[in-house]
Write a structure and sequence with these properties.
The protein is built from nine helices and eleven strands. With about 300 residues, the chain is α/β, with parallel strands linked by helices. It has two domains: about 160 residues, Rossmann fold (3-Layer(aba) Sandwich); about 100 residues, Immunoglobulin-like (Sandwich). The longest helix has 16 residues. It starts with 15 loop residues before the first strand and ends in a 7-residue tail after the last helix. Bound molecules: adenosine-5'-triphosphate and magnesium ion (MG).
C-alpha cells in the first residue's frame, strides 16, 4: 500500500471537485462514484475519492480487493483529520501569529490510501476514508460538534484549505456525500395552475442559505391552461435543528418570484430529533460506544 502522493507541479490547472448526492439512500451512489473514479484513473487521471458519508461510510468496500487494510480498521480518515484540527485549535493554534498555521493540518496526504493497482498513463486512484473503522467510530462522528467547528474553530476556512489542497494534487476529486436524510429535510409539495414556478432556493430566518434539493417537477395537465406539481426540500443542518427548540421558519423562493414561509414548531423539531437519537442508539457501534461516553481516538 502506498500512502500519500507527490506534490503537483505549480503551473498545473486545479482539479475538479464533483459531489455525488442522492436524495434517497441505497440508490447506487457509492457504486457509481467508485466506477466513475476507476474509469477516470484508467484514462490517466489522478483521482481522489472522498467518503464524506460519515454516518454510513461504505465507499471503501468497492475497493476492498485493492486495499491491504480492507476494512480500514487501521487507517485514519476525514473525521480523524477534523478532530486533529479541532483539538489543535483548542490548544491555541487558532490564535497563532501565523494565520496560515491551519494549512499544515489540511495536508490530507497522511490520511489518503492509494489503491494497489497500476493504472495506465500515470493514472492514480486514492481514497480519503471516512475515518478509522471500529467500535469508537460512530462516537467520534456523533460527538463532533459541527456548530462549534464552524463558529469557534474556523472550520470553514479549514475546509476551504483542504479543498484547495485536493484540487492542487488531483485532476478529479469525487465526493461521496451523505444521503438526503428525511429527518433533516423539510419536504414540500406545491401544486398549482398557471406558469411554472421553479422553486429553487431556501433560507432560514437569519437569511442563511439552506441547501435546496430539487426533487421533481411534473406537469399535471395542460387541458385548460397548465397545472404543475413541484416537489423539493430544504436541508436543515442537524445542529440548527438542535439549536431551534422554539421552532424555526424556512423561506423558499422560486424563479417566478413566488415565496413561501414554512414554520416548524419546536414540538415537531423535538419529535424529529428524538426519532434521530432513537435510530442512532440502535446502531451496534453506537451502542458499544455509548458506554464510554467519551471521544475515543
Ligand atoms: N447499477 C446497478 N445495478 C444493480 N445493482 C446496483 C447498481 N448500483 C448499485 N447497485 C447495488 O445497490 C446497492 C446499493 O449501492 P450503493 O451502496 O452504491 O448505494 P448508495 O446510494 O451509495 O447507498 P447508501 O445510501 O447506503 O450510501 C449495492 O448492493 C450495490 O451493489
Ligand atoms: Mg453509499
Amino acid at each position: 500500500m502506498r500512502r500519500g502522493r507527490e506534490e503537483a507541479p505549480v503551473d498545473e490547472p486545479l482539479g475538479n471537485i464533483i459531489t455525488f448526492y442522492s436524495y434517497k439512500g441505497g440508490t447506487g451512489r457509492s457504486m457509481a462514484l467508485a466506477n466513475v473514479a476507476w474509469i477516470l484513473a484508467s484514462g490517466g487521471k489522478r483521482v481522489l475519492t472522498v467518503d464524506w458519508d460519515l454516518e454510513a461510510p461504505g465507499l471503501h468496500r468497492y475497493y476492498a480487493p485493492f486495499l491491504s487494510d480492507k476494512d480500514l480498521t487501521g487507517s485514519e480518515g476525514l473525521i480523524d483529520l477534523l478532530i486533529e484540527f479541532r483539538d489543535a485549535t483548542a490548544v491555541g493554534g487558532a490564535g497563532a501569529a501565523d494565520d496560515k498555521w491551519h494549512e499544515a493540518y489540511a495536508d490530507i496526504s497522511a490520511y489518503v490510501v492509494s489503491l494497489d493497482w497500476d493504472f495506465p498513463r500515470g493514472g492514480t486512484l486514492d481514497i480519503l476514508p471516512a475515518g478509522r473503522q471500529g467500535a469508537s467510530y460512530s462516537a467520534r462522528v456523533n460527538s463532533f460538534d459541527w456548530v462549534e467547528f464552524y463558529e469557534r474553530r474556523g472550520g470553514g476556512v479549514f475546509l476551504e484549505s483542504i479543498k484547495e489542497k485536493m484540487r492542487a494534487d488531483y485532476d478529479y476529486v469525487l465526493i461521496d456525500s451523505r444521503t438526503g436524510e428525511v429527518t433533516h429535510q423539510l419536504y414540500v409539495e406545491d401544486s398549482y395552475a398557471g406558469a411554472k414556478r421553479e422553486w429553487n432556493a431556501a433560507q432560514d430566518a437569519m437569511g442563511k442559505t439552506l441547501r435546496f434539493i430539487p426533487i421533481k417537477v411534473s406537469e399535471i395537465s395542460c387541458d385548460n391552461g397548465c397545472a404543475y406539481a413541484e416537489e423539493f426540500a430544504a436541508a436543515i443542518p442537524e445542529a440548527d435543528l438542535r439549536a431551534s427548540t422554539q421552532g424555526l421558519t424556512v423561506f423558499f423562493s422560486a424563479k417566478s418570484g413566488n415565496q413561501m414561509a414554512i414554520p416548524l414548531s419546536g414540538a415537531l423539531i423535538a419529535k424529529q430529533l428524538a426519532a434521530v437519537d432513537a435510530a442512532r442508539a440502535k446502531l451496534p457501534t453506537n451502542a458499544a460506544a455509548a458506554g464510554t461516553g467519551a471521544v475515543a481516538r
